[in-house]
Amino acid sequence: MEKINLYHPVILQQSKEPCHFHKVDNAEITGLASNPICGDRFELFVTIEEEKVAVASFHGYGCAVSKAATSLLIQRILNQPLDKALQLVKAYLQMLKLGEGDLTDPELEVFKVARDYPGRLQCAQLSWQKMEELLESNLL
Amino acid sequence: MSPKVHTIEPLQIRKDFPIFRNRDLIYFDNAATTQKPLAVIEAVEQFYCLTNANVHRGIYRLASEATDAYEEARKNVQQFIHATSSDEIVFTRGATEGINLVAHSFVMPRLEKGQNLVISEMEHHSNLIPWQQIAKKHGVELRVIPLTDDGELDLQEGLEKVDEKTLLVALVHTSNSLGTINPINPFVERVRKMGSHILIDAAQAMVQQKIDVQEMDYDFLTFSGHKMFGPTGIGVLYGKSELLQRMQPYQYGGEMIESVSLDETTFRQPPYRFEAGTPNIAGSIGLSAAIDYIEQWDVEAIGTHGKELAAVAVEMLEALDIQIVGRPMHRGSIVSFLVDKIHPHDIATLLDHHHIAIRAGHHCTEPLMQRYDIPGTARMSFSIYNSATELQKVQEALLEVRQLFH
Q1: Is residue B169 within 8 Å of B191, Cβ to Cβ?
Q2: Phi/psi class of residue A79: alpha, beta or left (left: φ > 0; alpha: ψ in -120 to 50)?
Q3: What is the β-pairing status of strands A52-61 and B26-27?
Q4: Is the pLDDT of residue B390 over 60?
Q5: Residue B363 CB partners (closer than 8 Å, separation 6+)
Q6: Contacts of A18 (CB under 8 A, 6+ apart)
Q7: Where are the domains of chain B?
Q8: Domain spanning A9-139 has what CATH number?
Q9: Of the residues B171, B178, B316, B350, which has the fewest C-beta atoms closer than 10 A?
Q10: CA A118/CA A30 separation, integer angstroms
Q11: Inter-chain touch A65–B346, beta carbons under 8 Å
Q12: Contact, B324 vs B30, CB < 8 A?
């Protein structure tokens, strides 16, 4: 049998015990990362204070890959300056798109493997794409 | 006709399907599409190599042979579903197009305010959206037959939905998500009493039991070739002659006209009126070859084989304490399930590592998923080349899935 690469310990761990996995009632920015094809559906909560991501959390339902990717997204952008956060989100999405890039984050690099799985790349992209949209609209 | 074979021997049958020679594969996604036997592949190839020409327009011999082959395919379909005449067989792209054809050419021109359309909660999107959109546009009621928790039609309430104002009941024969085989006869009796009509979506039913449209008294029946070992892009709409005669064309173009001037067109008789443009000739010949292939066996035996595998699957999943979605009394060859809280896509990816192909998702039945408050299911669906031995491997793989996620 082939090795199950997609389910790297990072992905399994983050999906079983996601961080910041809760709703926030009064978040400044909320967005829905949803893929109707597979039923994945995460609400994203963000509050920006003084150009920094002061609050970030998520809640919802998705596969191991999308949940783990969202959990790491939230951890990475929390307490980051807005422009830095957006830069990271873009670098991650670029890495998924091209299979390489400037990102030096071993945990996030794990998700490159999704490129090799039919239909699963979108699981790794889902929340990050929505977050890119949310942060960009807030920068303007 | 040679006598039918009543036993299904998967190991022998696998040899008819080249894909199993070329890939290490346990294929449990037959409700999405079946694999193709060599007989079908060769029929399509032979047509292109020996007989290819356009139909219904050539004077030369080759064109006449192509036309004969196309019309022979139509006759073969007619005999397979026991239609009165081959004029009742309209070739389409698939079950979806057949439904849209009935929606456009039968329902829309007749629909009046105050009338209603009836479907069920377990319809595939293809047998929901056309009716939903028409109902919205024409301001008529779309009535939905509810389901029981077990995934069966609520028969009593369902029959009450059909009244003298019902123009059409559009019902799935066998649910592609739950495997439920629906009781169609009571609905046929009801529409006759109410002066209504019935369309049956038989996409999942064609290799499950004998379909006799006369005996069953369906007004319309629609199915796809590719779910019964035929090529993709070919399907059939059966309609009673008296209804097709009174229906307007679905699309306009070549092949479907009697005469054309710049001001006027007269259309050919059915089924040609509904087959605008060059049809999928090779597809129809492939479908005909698929029917010949199927007819080696008693079709009930094929259905029984699928049902038996589904029963083995249910037993295996139950032993693992896995949630089965849909508990119908009468189940076809389809089983949907959920493993703990593991996403169906994760199950499908992990089974794929074992070269087991299953489907995961909402199976184009989103309202059904909402009914059971689930995002989707993992689904296994069986065919003649599948065996209980393959299910053993699924069991092992599922144990591994559990282990990984706990």
Answers
A1: yes
A2: left
A3: unpaired
A4: yes
A5: B31, B124, B176, B177, B336, B376, B377, B379
A6: A58, A67, A68, A70, A71
A7: 10-34+298-399, 41-294
A8: 3.90.1010.10
A9: B316
A10: 30
A11: yes
A12: no
Tell me the per-residue pLDDT of B140-190, one tens digit each, with 9 for 90 and over: 999 999 999 999 999 999 999 999 999 999 999 999 999 999 999 999 999
CA dist A27 to A22, A24, A48, A53, B357, Å? 12, 6, 9, 11, 42
pLDDT at site A102: 85
Q: What is the pLDDT of residues B31-79, one digit of tens each?
A: 999 999 999 999 999 999 999 999 987 889 999 999 999 999 999 999 9
Residue B235, token pair as written in the block: 């399907």
Supply the pLDDT for residue A1.
43
Measured between CA atoms, the residue of chain A closest to residue B378 is A38
List chain B residues with CB under 8 Å of A7.
Answer: 346, 350, 404
Residues ≥6 apart with Cβ < 8 Å to B160: none
Structure-token match 């579903």, residue found? B81
Domain at B41-294: CATH code: 3.40.640.10
Contact between chains at B345 and A38 (C-beta distance less than 8 A): yes
Q: What is the ipTM of this complex?
A: 0.86
What residues in chain A have per-residue pLDDT under 70?
Answer: 1-4, 140
Best interface-test mutation with B: which of A4, A11, A12, A13 has the largest number of B CBs within 10 A?
A4
Q: Can you read off the two tokens belonging to residue B297?
A: 């066996």
Model pTM? 0.92
Domain parsing of chain A, residue ranges: 9-139
